[in-house]
């Protein structure tokens, strides 16, 4: 069996920089036409000038025959000037602004400390410029349980924000809960959407502890209970246009995952399409796969859909145990060493 679908895009991707960028970008370019590239580098990408420079280094790192297009984002800080949003829009290469609540996740220390208190002028300019706000939707208060951080963020930050600025376009990134699903489903006006990762569709929090501590399944927001996973699967496989593909592929070297204080992030770029196909196939909803991978994202962002097609072939293939890095390090992908059923044609042609 074979599926032919419009080439997908990845609406949430970490490409890093330097040698790691060179190592990972081909895996995304193998499958995806475009990707929204996250700005949480060290130092973060806070200006249009930095985004333009980062874009150049991504283009340089691409395999020569690749048409992959990076769509850049700015990292919102307490000091972001509304004029920077105007510059970003004018540049034609910045497509969104990313909110990291300070301390919420990897490289978020320069993030926003008080969104509703400090950032309204910038957010108002974003409404003017029709620039989407992408949110890592978790509060960071130490008295809020880590499994409740998304729900509390929705109730205490996102709802009040949208009451103040109902025309602000918002993408809730990497949603993990039934609460986020309901929130997106019930927002009126079409200005709120969500990206969904392979791990939050295929794993519940048991995967963190199966047979011992599993650092390669650790990401933020942390995996949740099975009822939440099921709610997310139902949402995406129902064909709702407000949910679309965002892998949150977040590479960290093996040593930094298997450490006393392990980094959050799952490297899923090589397996993401096969993983999404598995979700839709198992739900008997393959007819909605293409909209999720290739239509809903560009439609929400007001961009054209890709014209090229790719194939997904129903054929077992084995995910590599790891990818070797130039410095001797290794990247362990999601589902390392396991078999997956759907082989993207691009991998087929390049014999994985
Ligand atoms: N998802 C993660 O666990 N990690 C991401 C950051 C993020 O998307 O929150 C990273 O940059 O490593
Ligand atoms: Zn995040
Ligand atoms: Zn991310």
UniProtKB/TrEMBL annotation:
Its EC number is 3.5.2.3. Coiled coil: none annotated. One of its GO terms (molecular function) is dihydroorotase activity. Residues 10-319 form the Amidohydrolase-related domain. The keyword Amino-acid biosynthesis does not apply. Pfam families: Amidohydro_1 (PF01979). One of its GO terms (biological process) is 'de novo' pyrimidine nucleobase biosynthetic process. It catalyses: (S)-dihydroorotate + H2O = N-carbamoyl-L-aspartate + H(+). Pathway: Pyrimidine metabolism; UMP biosynthesis via de novo pathway; (S)-dihydroorotate from bicarbonate: step 3/3. InterPro entries: Amidohydro-rel, DHOdimr, Dihydroorotase_CS, Metal_Hydrolase. GO terms for cellular component: chloroplast. It comes from the Eukaryota. Belongs to the metallo-dependent hydrolases superfamily. DHOase family. Class II DHOase subfamily. This is Dihydroorotase, mitochondrial. It comes from Papaver atlanticum.
